[in-house]
Amino acid sequence: MGAQLSKQVERRKAISAEKKVLADLQQNGGCDFPGSDYHPPDRANWMSGLNPDNIRIHQIVWPGTHDSATNDIGIPLVTRPFAQCQSLSIYGQLKTGARVLDIRVQEDRRVCHGIILSHSVDVVISDVRKFIQETQSEIVVLEIRTEFGHDDPPDFDQYLVDQLGEFLIHHDEQVFNKTISELLPKRVICVWKPRKSAQPKPGGPLWSSGYLKDNWIDTDLPSTKFESNLKFLGEQSPAANRKYFYRVENTVTPQADNPVLCVKPVTDRIRGYARMFICQSFARGFADRLQIFSTDFIDEDFVDACVGLTSARVEGKA
C-alpha cells in the first residue's frame, strides 16, 4: 500500500512538472505565427472562404478530431467520462470547422472506444452527408478503422461505397497537388483501415491505411507528448512533397496506473497549447510539415489556428 501511494505521489509530481514546462514555454515563446490573427467569418464554409481555386490539398492544415464519434458514447455520468473525447456531434464538429474525422468501429458497425459503445456508424455517415449537402466546397477526410481488439465489420468496404459513393474522391496520389476546385463535386477522401480484411485497392473509391499516418504515443504526460509530436513532425518531409497525410494529435490519454481516468481533465493538460505547438513548429524550422492537426473536444479557436495557417500558406506568407 505504501509503495503504491509513493508511486502515485511521484506520478502527480511528474505531471505537475510537465504542465509547468508547457506553461513556461508558452510564456517565453508566445503563440504568434503567420495567420494566427485570422478568424474565418463562416467556419462551416471556411474552405469556400479561402477560394477553392487557390487552395491545393497539400497546403491545407486540416483541423481534425480524435475519437470523433464519442459525444454520446456509453452511459452518462457512468462510463461516458472514461471514453468521451468530443462534446459535439459529427455534424456539429463539421459545422465548427473540423475536416478530418477519426471513427472507430467494431464487428456490428457500432462506434466504440475500447469496450465502451456508442451509436451505429450510420449516424456518422448521415451527419457527413447532411453537412456535404449543405455546403459546396468543403472537403472532408473520413478515417474509419476497426478498433483495437475487435474484428472488422463484414463487407464494410462495400457499405462505405454504397453510402458515400457519389461523394468519394477516388484514390490518386495526384490529389495532393490538386486544388479543391479540381476535386469538386467529389467531397470525401475516405481512408478505410481494417485490421484483418484486405486493404482498399489502388485507384479505387477508398484509400488504404498508408495514406494517413501518425506516430502515436500513449501517455498522460503533456510535455512528453508535446515534444514527441514535434520530434516526429520534424522527421517528416514537407507536406508539399508527400503523397500521404501526416497527423499530429494534440492529446494526452488516461493511464491505467493513474487514478485520474476521465478523459477531459487529462487531455486538458495539453489541449490549450495547440497554438503554441504551431508556433514551436515555426521556431524549430519545420512548420511546412504540419498537415493534419487533431484534438479532443474541438473548439473554434483550434479551428481558427489551423485555418489561419492555411490562409497564410495560400497567400505565400508561410
Give a description of the structure.
This protein has one domain: Phosphatidylinositol (PI) phosphodiesterase (TIM Barrel, Alpha-Beta Barrel), CATH 3.20.20.190. It is 36% helix and 14% strand. The protein has ten helices and nine strands. A seven-stranded parallel beta sheet has the order 6-5-2-1-9-8-7. The protein has a two-stranded antiparallel ribbon with strand order 3-4. A hairpin with a 2-residue loop joins strand 3 and strand 4. Helix 3 packs parallel to helix 4. The termini are far apart.
Structure in a nutshell:
This protein has 318 residues and is α/β, with parallel strands linked by helices.
Give the full name of the CATH homologous superfamily: Phosphatidylinositol (PI) phosphodiesterase
Mean pLDDT, all residues: 96
Kindly name the structural category: alpha/beta
Estimated share of beta-strand residues:
5-15%
Q: How many strands in all?
A: 9
Shape: globular
Named at the architecture level, the CATH assignment is: Alpha-Beta Barrel
CATH C-level category: Alpha Beta
Indicate the CATH topology: TIM Barrel
Q: How much helix is in the residues?
A: 25-40%
Q: Stretches where pLDDT falls below 50 for ≥5 residues?
A: none
Total domain count: 1
Run of helices and strands: HHEHEEEHEHHEEHEHHEH
End-to-end CA span? 54 Å
Which sheet architecture does the biggest sheet show? 7 strands, parallel
Q: What gyration radius follows from the Cα positions, in whole Å?
A: 19 Å
Number of helices, counting only DSSP H or I runs of 4 residues or more = 10
